[in-house]
Each structure stands twice: as C-alpha cells, then as structure tokens.
Design brief:
- By secondary structure, the chain is of the alpha+beta class.
- The protein has 26 helices and 13 strands.
- Strands 1, 2, 3, 4, 5, 6, 7, 8 and 9 form a nine-stranded antiparallel sheet that branches. A two-stranded antiparallel sheet has the order 10-11.
- Strand 2 and strand 3 form a beta hairpin.
- Helix 1 runs antiparallel to helix 2, helix 21 packs across helix 22 and helix 22 packs parallel to helix 25.
Length: 582
C-alpha cells in the first residue's frame, strides 16, 4: 500500500506541474483526496484547508516506502495525530447529546453514523433536539478537524463566515471530561458579559499543528484570496527533515544509494537533526516549542526550514538569549508583579513556566550555552515510548551521566540520597516539574541546580520542596547550605517553619498553587511527604477563583481517594471545603 501511495503522490505531482488552469485545480483536489483518511465525505472535506504536495514538499506518503521503520514509529506518535480530519478514528470525546454550558451559551454535541456535530441551543429552551430533529437545526455545525490526541482534544467547526473556528469546549482525555475551553487555561474567571474568545484556525494554530504551512499566513482568517494550504495535517516527516522532493528525486538512482551506503556519512539532500550542529538541531524542535516576542510568531515567517538556526530568522536573542544569560533574570526582578498576568511566561529567575516551550528553557541552560546539548541529546521521535519520546539509550540518569560521568560514579555523595531513591534521579533535582499547562505540571528544561526558591509570587518553586511538600523552605535552605555550601536566603517566618506545599497552595500565585496541588498526587512526593497533612490546604483550592486550579486540586483529591465532582468544580467553586478539617 505504501508503494502504491508513493506512486500515486509522485505521479499526481508530475502531472500537476504539467497541467495548468482548471485541470490543475481538479488535480489539486485529487491530491487532497488521496492524502485524506478513507471514508471522508464531501461535507467533511470541503471546508478543510487545501492539503497536498507543494513547494518542494511531497508529504509522508513519499517516505514510507524507503523508510518503513521510521514511518511506522512516527505513525504511532502524538505528533502525527496533532491535527486530524474529524473521523470516527480521530475523535476521542463522547458526542452523546449531552448539554454543555459556557457563560450564558448552551451547546449540545452528537454523533450520527461516524459524523460529529455541535449545536448551539437557545438558552431559554436548552433541550437538545430529539431523534432526527437536529438535522433541520439552523445552528448545527459539522466537526471538521481535531487538534490534540494525548492530553486534551479540541474541535474545529465551520463558522457562518466560512472560517474554521474552535468549538468553545475541549475534552480532557486523561480524566475523561468535557470542559469549557476557557477553563483549560490558568487565569481569573472571565466576566459574564465578556464575549467568548474566538479561536480561528488560520490565526496561529496552523503554523505549528501542520506540516508545510501556511504558505500565505494571515491574521484575518480564511478569505477568498488567502491560501492557507498545507502539505499535511499534523506534524509529519518533512516538518523535521525538511522538504523531501529533491531527496526522493536523487535517490531514485540505485548507484547513488549504494554509494551513500558505502560512504556511511549520511545524505545531504535531506536534513537529519542528529547530524546537525546543536543550535540548528535544537531549532528544528524550537520552531514550535519556543516563546516568541509579542510581535512575532511562526506565522510571521515562512523562510525557516530545518537545517537553519531559529536565531537567523527570529529575534529570539533579544528576549531570551543574551551574551549575559543572567541579564534577563535581572530585568524580570524589576517588573511589577501586580501588572503581570498570572500566566506570564517566565518565573522571576527567567525560567519558563508554561508547558510546551522547552526550547526557550534549554537555550538558557549551561548544557546548551557551554556544551553541545540539543533536543536529540535525550529525545528520539522514532524510539521509545510515544508519551515522552525519550531515547531508550538515554533513559533515566543516562541522559545526564553520559556527559557528567563523575557525578554518576558516586550518586549518594552527589545527591545525599540513597542511590536507588527518586532523590538520586538527575531529572528530579535538575529538571523539576515547574512548568504548567493543560491542567498538569511538566519538567523544566533549564537544567539547573536546586535552591531554596519559591518564597515570593512568581518565584519558581524549588525541586526539594516539590518532593518534600510537608517541609519548609527553611528546612531546604539548611540542607543545601550544609551539603553544597549555598548561601542561606533570608526567609519570613512562614517559610522558615510552615510546609512549603501548604504555603504555596494558600498564598502563592496561580501557577504556584496549581503546581503544589498537582504534586500532591505525584508518586515521589507522596512517598517523601506526609501528604495527609496538606489535605486542608488542598481542599481550600476547590474554592479557588481560577477554574484550572480547582480542577487540578480536585483531580489530586480524587487520586488521594476522596470523592470529588471535578466536572462541577470546573464551572463553579465548591460551596465549602471538600473535606472535614480542623
């Protein structure tokens, strides 16, 4: 089947170049159809972005015949399923005619023979239509695409003006619940009279959730004269390896392939991130996993391709990577916290605190600035568990001890923890889970050492107290001073004596509250801490003004064996403490 698919794609591309006008448009539609899943009907395919080979790109169909192993491993990855056509195989949420409410607006979702629809209902009469009555409902919208298949899935429908816009509810896959899209973000509750924020596919999603697009980016959404075509939905081969047309053409020659095999030095007609200098290699992932200045985004540039450096295309150095890597930290220290949104991207020390922006953290680490670290130093798209894509050869401490061999020879002397314990795992101390996103904590990629930090708002929680939640910052400061000679910071009484986890939950900023609540369910913290002593603080977070914080706290209470209706918490704070406590 792969050989046939490749032949079809190549043949269509050759013919497409030879034919112009109307015939070219027809062939373009044929190419799009060939790249879509089986069973896609005209109602579903018509609103989709144009999909097919273009601008030196051929699509993943051209890769599988010669690279079946890599193609199969990619096919099982969450990168491939980042954006999909909304078929029965792609949609994970139950479209079961339930009613969903969001700030005065009411919707229902339903499935009809593998087709998925969202209908906005009359708030005065929010009863979902019965039987086939929905077919004549003027507000019925077919779900066209999905985004996400790992932690959370969003859905795209065609609006009245023809644009693809996000349905205002998402499905949390891990916990199996629908929530309003606004409740998936960490922030204060919106005002009831505020309009629902409208997310348009072409306004920022297309660049990092597809391959080979957009070719003519716009901030105005789809229009009659705007081309937002892509090579493929989702992140496929050419997003990391660059356009493959020249590579495929050259390697039709068996003598060339044999000569490359004998030489064993790779093929310069295609990009292999593992063979690039570390800055260019990291840029392949950084294109989507970076924080850009407010006036820039991947949509603003179409001239970055794998093999080059992001710094040559974007002004990332001005904000994130200066000659003095402490300069950004110093500038953050003088910011007025009260004027900053709680989800502002950086902690006060300059570390990133939003998930999915690992590149921006890594390029500020010593391993990158003073060494040769790249994303491929630890990760592999084609090996290991798709969940984190850690290279099996670099699993656990091996990802660090390959360069830091001396520390690995006597772990206990370095960590002051038993060698087999979580306290002796490199990532627990040097990559703590201090970034937040999608109702969960994720690892920092700053790669620095623990300090007794976290004493003020927007100050990063430290690795020690995220594990020892029931200990104070003063306790941590004492141990770090004794073990590593760190200067002891001046701390207020609460941080000298009270459990850091409880202080963060009760007095921290939004990200601190969410991270502390999430870590109460984390197995290493439950092993190292008496989490039961933190339950009153955790219960208090069920009344938090931020929906995301309430959900994280509720999910942790459920994980700890308590009966909590987290779906209800997503919409309204608990009327009182969820647990009996003194």
């Amino acid at each position: 089947p792969r050989v046939i698919a490749v032949a079809v794609a190549r043949g269509l591309r050759v013919v497409e170049r030879a034919v112009f006008g109307v015939c070219g448009a027809v062939l373009g539609a044929a190419i799009t159809f060939a790249l879509l899943p089986s069973g896609v009907d005209a109602e579903l395919s018509a609103p989709l972005p144009a999909i097919g080979p273009q601008e030196d790109y051929l699509s993943s169909n051209a890769c599988g015949a010669c690279h079946p192993g890599q193609h199969d491993s990619w096919h099982g990855s969450f990168h491939r399923t980042m954006t999909q056509v909304a078929t029965a195989d792609a949609v994970v949420a139950p479209f079961d005619r339930r009613v969903l409410r969001e700030r005065g607006r009411v919707f229902t979702v339903l499935e009809d023979e593998g087709r998925f629809y969202a209908i906005e209902l009359d708030p005065e009469d929010p009863s979902p239509p019965e039987g086939d009555e929905w077919r004549d409902h003027p507000a019925a919208r077919r779900v066209i695409m999905t985004t996400g298949s790992h932690h959370l899935q969003a859905y795209w429908v065609q609006s009245n003006d023809g644009t693809l816009e996000q349905f205002p509810f998402v499905y949390v896959i891990r916990e199996g619940r629908w929530i309003a899209n606004a409740d998936s973000f960490l922030g204060p509750p919106p005002h009831d009279d505020d309009p629902l924020r409208r997310y348009v596919w072409a306004e920022g999603c297309v660049a990092c959730h597809t391959t080979g697009g957009p070719w003519d980016p716009t901030t105005q959404g789809f229009g009659e004269d705007v081309d937002t075509s892509v090579v493929e939905l989702g992140i496929s081969c050419e997003q990391c390896h660059g356009p493959g047309e020249r590579h495929v053409a050259l390697n039709r020659s068996p003598t060339r392939r044999y000569a490359l095999h004998l030489r064993g030095a790779g093929d310069d007609s295609i990009v292999n991130p593992r063979r690039l200098p570390h800055e260019a290699s990291a840029s392949v992932c950084g294109y989507c996993h970076a924080i850009y200045p407010d006036d820039e985004s991947p949509d603003d540039h179409v001239d970055f391709r794998p093999g080059t450096r992001l710094a040559d295309v974007y002004d990332v150095t001005a904000v994130h990577r200066t000659a003095d890597r402490h300069a950004h930290e110093a500038s953050l220290e003088h910011l007025d916290v009260d004027t900053l949104d709680t989800v502002e991207a950086f902690w006060r020390d300059g570390s990133v605190r939003v998930a999915g922006r690992e590149y921006t953290s890594m390029i500020r680490s010593g391993c990158y600035l003073e060494g040769q670290m790249a994303c491929t130093s630890c990760h592999s798209m084609h090996d290991g568990d798709p969940n984190k894509q850690v290279d099996p050869a670099r699993a656990s401490d091996a990802m660090c001890t390959g360069c830091h061999a001396e520390e690995g020879q006597d772990l206990e002397a370095h960590t002051h923890h038993a060698p087999e314990s979580e306290g002796s795992r490199c990532v627990q101390c040097h990559m703590p889970q201090t970034s937040y996103g999608l109702l969960m904590a994720t690892r920092s990629h700053r790669m620095d050492g623990p300090t007794a930090s976290g004493a003020a708002g927007r100050q990063r929680p430290n690795a020690c107290n995220l594990c020892h939640l029931d200990r104070s910052l003063g306790w941590t400061a004492d141990h770090l001073a004794e073990w590593y000679g760190q200067e002891r910071p001046a701390l207020v009484d609460s941080h000298e004596s009270l459990p850091a986890g409880a202080v963060w939950m009760l007095t921290g900023d939004g990200v601190q509250r969410a991270l502390a609540a999430w870590h109460t369910r984390w197995a290493p913290a439950r092993e190292a801490s008496d989490v039961e002593t933190l339950l009153p603080a955790l219960a208090r977070l069920t009344q938090d003004p931020y929906s995301a914080v309430r959900q994280v706290a509720g999910d942790s209470l459920v994980a700890l064996g308590h009966d909590v209706d987290v779906e209800a918490l997503a919409y309204d704070p608990a009327p009182g403490p969820a647990l009996e406590s003194e």
